[in-house]
């Protein structure tokens, strides 16, 4: 797998032109909420928002000061439609959006859906994948978030690249195969690491101690991998495969799935430390 | 399990007195290195360092400006001996240290070894457990690190509490059962989360992308749980148990243990989100 061979040198010339593009958001979830607000802040015209539910559509449209609808067949015209929805409904929605503005650029923000989802359906399309964990309740700065772009042709490439550059310092062209692996990496580093925090929170609860006591440890663990590789940064009983400690910990865990996770992760840590 | 019932009200009066105590470190690993340096900086006299290897003993003693030895039977006298060594060798070393200074206070820093390890061997003893991940190459500030203390009697409790307070704002008395669960929580939140970073690093490597692209995601994941519970903060395909995405990811993973980790963690995330 390699990065896509796109004309990066031509990209900057299209910067001003792309600011004239208007954008419509299909979806009002975590990604759509943060991305639309960042693009509005960067000077783009957000034409409207579609969501399945009135509350989501209205809440986001209110922050953007734009049109909203819950009827996918009643969109307003825009230069770019950004689909930021669950993978399972993307194709169905895409089909309906295309009918209304076949000449527009169609973009999705998913890590795991290949660009081929657009092929044969529309002429201009691309991917705009910001690699971050978004929750509506937590503000994020896009500046430092890597954005990975892929496109149907050079013109769309330039448009998407310059839009991405208007909100982030880290923009890369990347093909779909590479992006899928990147998405897997992001699930491991974020969703799985966060689940480790959840499992730890349960133990703190059982010990009658507040979760906040773990925050210095969680922060330091994240901070260390800015300086050391995570393999070098690894500490704890599993590195030495200290079975005495591992068995004491297992004796505290009654849930089968949590015991299996503990055993597998410990073995994997040990194997990775000594490979 | 409950916190131990120690006389917290009496603790502050012993602050000055405890600064007169001299300390000897058995062990020169990650914990001993950071803890001894913090205590020296706080004004304690570090009498010496023992390590199995010349290089570890000498390196740490040089930073502390103190005596060092690799012969456990040739220690110098001190008021407190802090044993910061692998769980598997602690009892054997403790036996040899006690012979030389039976009237001193003996302390260990392990999360998973109960205070009963000292019982019947010596009169004054305790636990001094700083909950943090320590690597020699990474400087840490103790100020924010929770330290958990347990002791043989009130006098030792006061001594250890005031020593802990001289380097940290978060000091608690905690019994051995509770500390073992706390240690399990720390392994989950730190060692397992860090291993998720390692697994992610391998995928980045396969995609030909630098690990540093993951840092904003890793930082945000840690930052979010300062505001939301990790369960509320959870995002990603496993929350919805989107089997289409899960199967695409599994198709990229060839190692059996990594596939099993991926499947178990995804199932556990889903169960925890919907409980």
TrEMBL record, chains A, B:
Sequence ranges assigned to domain Pyrroline-5-carboxylate reductase catalytic N-terminal in this UniProt record: 23-107
Domain annotation DUF2520: ranges: 145-268
SUPFAM superfamilies: 6-phosphogluconate dehydrogenase C-terminal domain-like (SSF48179), NAD(P)-binding Rossmann-fold domains (SSF51735)
Any coiled-coil regions, as ranges: none
UniProt superkingdom: Bacteria
Name of the featured protein: DUF2520 domain-containing protein
Species per Swiss-Prot/TrEMBL record: Alloprevotella rava F0323
């Amino acid at each position: 797998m390699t990065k896509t061979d796109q004309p990066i040198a031509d990209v900057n010339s299209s910067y001003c032109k792309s600011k004239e593009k208007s954008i419509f958001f299909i979806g009002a979830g975590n990604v759509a909420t943060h991305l639309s607000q960042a693009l509005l802040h960067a000077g783009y015209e957000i034409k409207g928002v579609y969501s399945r539910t009135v509350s989501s559509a209205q809440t986001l449209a209110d922050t953007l000061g734009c049109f909203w609808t819950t009827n996918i067949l009643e969109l307003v015209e825009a230069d770019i439609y950004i689909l930021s929805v669950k993978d399972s409904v993307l194709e169905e929605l895409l089909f309906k959006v295309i009918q209304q503005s076949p000449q527009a650029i169609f973009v999705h923000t998913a890590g795991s859906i290949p660009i081929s989802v657009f092929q044969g359906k529309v002429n201009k399309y691309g991917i705009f994948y910001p690699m971050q964990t978004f929750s509506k309740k937590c503000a994020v700065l896009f500046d430092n978030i890597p954005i990975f772009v892929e496109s149907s042709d050079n013109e769309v490439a330039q448009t998407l690249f310059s839009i991405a550059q208007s909100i982030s310092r880290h923009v890369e062209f990347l093909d779909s195969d590479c992006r899928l692996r990147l998405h897997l990496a992001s699930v491991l580093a974020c969703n799985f690491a966060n689940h480790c925090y959840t499992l730890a929170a349960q133990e703190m609860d059982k010990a009658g101690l507040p979760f906040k006591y773990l925050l210095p440890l969680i922060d330091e663990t994240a901070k260390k991998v800015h300086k050391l590789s995570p393999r070098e940064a690894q500490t704890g009983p599993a590195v030495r495969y200290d079975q005495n400690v591992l068995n004491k910990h297992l004796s505290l865990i009654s849930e089968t799935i949590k015991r299996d996770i503990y055993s597998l992760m410990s073995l994997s840590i040990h194997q990775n430390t000594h490979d």
